[in-house]
Design brief:
By secondary structure, the protein is mostly helical. Helices cover 60% and strands 7% of the residues. Strand 2 and strand 3 form a beta hairpin. The longest helix has 33 residues.
């Protein structure tokens, strides 16, 4: 009897052992099959991590959970299924252990390494720069994977809290003040620009261009690598929160379980979850502008951005960026924070449309950001007029209604973050007077040549249709707008003026890029080999959406001299660009007003808007014949026998140091002597 009982127990233990062994073999096989490279001798690489991230996204989207009990056993296993993919909870736990360990170790190593790098080290051009940015890419992918793993650990609250504390510690360091040096440095630029008529191109257009000699002595340091490291990781955090909304609930739990000194988010705001996203955006703003003063000059300084920080790509996705833009809470944010957010969205929507196969969903994102930016523009213009700023005098008025009142912005962020923002804004306002004169108020010759150069840069950065024709048209506009330049009309740079102009320029940048991207989607949608125009559509609801959005520009006055000239010259093609013409006339007028006031940043913002509208013209008709008379009239009024020669000397961020001044004088003499040989 006893032997029979022992034999029965032995058979039971054998069955349990075989079942456990089989489960372990399956788990090991699944783990090694799905994640073969994660624990390889070469270590984690971007391709392997991208595969893991894609796999985790699929599991988190619509996974089904099931509990399997072993036969004659109290043990159980949890399986997570999505389509043909099935993994056990032990697989996820094992993966989480590996990934979180790597994340923590790599973060600490890179954080301490970047914190010890001197600002004098030029990482952008050094041989180690590629390895550095590769390490950042791997770390950002690890960060994304670990955030998704938090959702897959739902069955074990203790694991969520344990792993969540690692993420909270990392975020705490990302939120910490950035001890970076001022990376703007000094730059001395010498230019000799020749304005002359180019020979006519094939279609009969001619262009006023800028050629000649440009030399520069620059003491510009690259972006601080620690700053890039921290801001990109914050963008990853925001992107994942917005892409997977349920993550905010897990972070509320993690934050509330942490000690009082370790909590990062306002306990009053985390109940709605939005406060976590807002907190991260605010800290991104604080980090981004802790070492910057010339806000407006940086907004459109594309060449310097590519020169000093060529590897910096936004980590915020298009969908997440647009959803952030549409969040009504951001309307109540301080103007500088609003402008920074809008600038972030502009960077996010500026993607290579051709490389991602444009579809209706992507097109709708661009259309949404365009519509929102137009609404923001109307509201902002209305406030400018109400506040009595004469920067936009001359009838540029709007009847746009006020925004819906939102809850106080400070209720969504921690008191510490609120104090940091107030301190930073105060410093920006106090420093604006001494820096802004050289940053964006320029002489007429400076403004003309800078505008011409900016248009050329835009044509290399953005996908602009008919570049030669458009450059000819925009060159004419710049020269005509410069005729209204008045040095006596230059405005004092008050802090409140900057708080209005920076959001305005940011809004125009977003509006222009969104429109350019939407048009690109329409021109290359449905895998068309050659760019399509409106005539290639039997019906185009996206185009109708754009036209409905820009009908508001009919509310603006177009009685400025340049607007009247343009309207008259386009009258011979009265059936073309009936609605889009009003947007073109509006920004042409605003650009002329910006020339009157010497506002370089606003001139560039208007130029980018004009480029976007001209792209719309090309999409509508396939050509720019409606503006051919503008180019022809400019050609007739120009005198080829007496070309205009402008010698431009620009000194940016002048340093009073006698040593620097001495170097400047010597190099100036040498360069000028070379120019006139």
């Amino acid at each position: 009897m006893a032997d029979s009982r022992r034999n029965k127990q032995n058979r039971k233990r054998k069955r349990e052992f075989m079942a456990d062994s089989q489960r372990n073999r399956k788990r090991k096989t699944a783990f090694n099959t799905i994640f073969p490279d994660i624990q390889s001798p070469q270590g984690m690489k971007s391709p392997a991590l991208k595969n893991v991230y894609s796999f985790l996204v699929q599991l988190c989207s619509n996974a089904e959970w099931s509990i399997n009990n072993a036969v004659d056993s109290h043990s159980f296993d949890i399986e997570i299924c999505h389509g043909d993919i099935t993994v056990t909870f032990e697989d996820i736990s094992e993966l989480a252990n590996v990934m979180f360990k790597e994340l923590e170790e790599r973060f600490e190593h890179l954080f301490s390494k970047l914190g010890g790098i001197s600002a004098d080290e030029d990482l952008v051009v050094s041989s180690s720069s590629l390895g550095l940015f590769d390490a950042m890419e791997v770390l950002n992918l690890l960060f994304r994977c670990c955030m998704l793993l938090i959702m897959l650990l739902e069955a074990r609250l203790n694991l969520i809290l344990e792993k969540g504390q690692i993420l909270l510690r990392i975020l705490g360091k990302l939120f910490s003040p950035n001890l970076v040096k001022d990376t703007r440095g000094n730059a001395f630029v010498f230019e000799k620009s020749f304005f002359h008529e180019c020979t006519p191109v094939d279609n009969g257009c001619s262009a006023s261009s800028v050629e000649g000699f440009t030399a520069s002595l620059q003491f510009l340091e690259p972006y601080d690598p620690l700053l890039v490291f921290k801001t990109t990781m914050l963008e990853v955090f925001v992107d994942e929160l917005l892409a997977h909304r349920q993550l905010t609930g897990y972070f509320m739990i993690i934050n509330s379980a942490a000690g009082i000194d370790e909590r990062l988010f306002n306990p009053r705001s985390v109940l709605c979850g939005t406060g976590i996203v807002i907190e991260a955006i605010c800290n991104h703003f604080i980090l981004s502008f802790s070492d910057k003063k010339a806000l407006l000059s940086q907004l459109f300084f594309m060449h310097a951005i590519k020169l000093n920080n060529p590897y910096r790509a936004p980590e915020l996705g298009v969908n997440a960026a647009v959803s952030l833009l549409l969040n009504p809470i951001m309307v109540s944010a301080p103007k500088y924070v609003q402008a920074h957010l809008i600038s972030l969205v502009s960077e996010a929507v500026h993607i290579d449309v051709k490389s991602v196969k444009p579809d209706r969903k992507l097109s709708n994102c661009f259309l949404s950001s365009f519509e929102k930016s137009v609404c923001l523009y109307r509201t902002h213009m209305s406030r400018l007029e109400t506040d009595g700023y004469s920067v936009l005098h001359g009838g540029c008025t709007s009847s746009s209604p006020r925004d819906i009142v939102s809850p106080p912005f400070e209720s969504y962020i921690s008191p510490d973050t609120k104090n940091k923002i107030d301190t930073l804004i105060s410093r920006l306002d106090n420093s604006s007077n001494q820096d802004s004169c050289d940053s964006f108020f320029r002489m007429k010759s400076d403004l003309v040549s800078s505008s011409m150069r900016f248009v050329k840069e835009c044509q290399s950065v953005y996908d602009i249709s008919c570049p030669e024709e458009i450059f000819a048209i925009v060159s004419c506009l710049i020269l005509k707008a410069s005729e209204s330049y008045d040095e006596n009309a230059m405005l004092p740079t008050e802090a409140t003026t900057l708080q209005h102009l920076y959001p305005l320029a940011s809004i125009l940048k977003l509006m222009s890029i969104s429109l350019l991207q939407a048009i690109q989607c329409l021109r290359h949608i449905d895998d068309s080999r050659s760019p399509k125009t409106l005539k290639g559509f039997t019906s185009c609801k996206e185009y109708n959406y754009i036209i409905n959005t820009i009908t508001c520009f009919r509310d603006f006055d177009i009685s400025l001299p340049l607007q009247e000239v343009l309207s008259s010259q386009m009258s011979s093609h009265s059936m073309r660009h009936v609605d889009s013409k009003m947007m073109f006339l509006h920004f042409s007028g605003l650009m002329s007003l910006s020339f009157v006031s010497g506002l370089e940043c606003l001139v560039k913002a208007c130029l980018l808007s004009i480029l976007a509208v001209l792209n719309l013209f090309v999409f509508e008709e396939g050509d720019l014949d409606a503006l051919q008379s503008l180019v022809d009239s400019n050609k007739e009024s120009s005198s080829p026998e007496s070309p205009v020669v402008i010698v431009q000397e620009t000194v940016v961020d002048r340093n009073n140091s006698l040593v620097v001044a001495s170097k400047f004088h010597k190099i100036r003499s040498r360069l000028l002597s070379c120019m006139f040989l």
